[in-house]
Amino acid sequence: MPSIETADPSPSAPVGSGDIPSSLGALRFKRPPAVGRRTFNWIRPAVCPMVTRSIPDDLRRLDLATLGRYGPIIGLIGLYVVFTALNSRFLTLGNQVNVLRQVSIIGILAVGVTFPIICAEIDLSIAEMMEFTGLFVAALATGSVVVSSSYPVPVAIAAGILAGVVLGGLSGVVTSRYGVPSFMSTLAMLFLAQGFALIVSNARPITGLPESLQWFGGATVFRHYVAELDGTLQIPAIVLVFLTLLVVSQFVLSYTRFGLYVYAIGGNREAAERMGINVPLVRLSVIVISAVFAAAAGVVMLGRIGIGSPTMGQGLLLPPIAAVILGGANLFGGSGNMIGTLVGVLILGVLQNGLNLMGVDAVSDR
Fold first, then answer.
1. What's residue 65's pLDDT?
2. Quick one: CA dihedral 106, 112, 115, 117, positive or negative?
3. What pLDDT is attached to residue 188?
4. Which of 1, 10, 143, 303 could form a disulfide with 216 if both were Cys (CB 3.0 to 4.6 A apart)?
5. Same domain, 126 and 239
6. Structural domain span for residue 7
């Protein structure tokens, strides 16, 4: 800093007498000594370390948030670009309808398991629950094995859904009431449902399903030829069921108090309890919802394959959970939505369909 020297005040104009110009004139500024070429290095700009560190950190967090939000969609678009370039049949209207048909069962299971995942729970019994309820409905509708007489299809379907509610409620009570982690309670239910499936079917396929029961998996509810695309637009009943359940579930999560509670508990269970939310009831409900969707998938699967098979749930546990995570949901709860689940399901379906068109068999693509 420049030094300041004070001259002796003049007797005729003493400092402090009120003559300001004279007082200022008594001050003389002295230049700092020049040292080589660094004469003006005594002036240094102030640098705030917090500013220099916070901007890259904020940008990094922004990039991660953007990637988490739009990454699944970008990945799905990338798959479409790659498979369209590799095979001209991939982007045809008929093949896209086929993709939706192939992923509908996984999609229904994924929509159901999205609820417990957002709520920081998990349901590992969805595949076996689907298998048992499907076989139970088939047994009631055909009057085979453990049932003495056949029942109308609506009654059989209602009984199958009710069975899903009961078994899902059992898992939910064990988790919400007695504090057993949902991982453990639903894993136990997996083995229990598997045993029930073998009892109901006597470990044999159930054939002779009523035609009305096969409607959900094999019927087409809309058919229209599109000249611009040189193809017929078909909406299979199985796709309609999947998309309807997805839209209703998204509405529940986004526009109802229950959906808000699910997100709140998944984000911070302690805070949700302090807010007065009935946490045990919501935890029970999300597991029951997952079981109900698994039961619905079992009914649709009957129409898809035409028989009640004791192995129809094989290999259907991990793909729905993977689809939810691929869609951007956090496995530890608090985030996720049905649109992301749809994107995750489509990623799995497009990947499998594209590999099949390239000649990769089912064993290799697994």
1. 57
2. negative
3. 97
4. 303
5. yes
6. 1-44
Confirm whether 56 is domain-assigned: no
Q: Is 206 within the bounds of a domain?
A: yes
Judge whether 103 and 345 are in contact, CB under 8 Å: yes
Q: Residues 6 or more apart from 110 whose CB is under 8 A from it?
A: 319, 320, 321, 323, 324, 341, 344, 345
Give the pLDDT confidence score for residue 61 in this predicted structure: 55
Residues 6+ apart with CB under 8 A from 80: 90, 91, 350
The total of other beta-carbon atoms located within 10 Å of residue 6's CB is 9
Instruction: Report if residue 50 sits inside a domain.
Output: no
- What radius of gyration do the chain's Cα atoms show? 34
* Number of domains the chain contains: 2
How far apart CA 157 and CA 259 sit, in angstroms, is 27
| Backbone φ/ψ region at 315: left (φ over 0), alpha (ψ -120 to 50), beta | left
pTM: 0.80
Q: Give average pLDDT by consecutive 10-residue segment, the chain, 366 residues.
A: 48 47 49 49 45 51 62 93 92 90 96 98 97 94 75 93 97 96 96 94 90 84 66 83 97 96 96 95 98 97 92 94 95 94 97 90 53
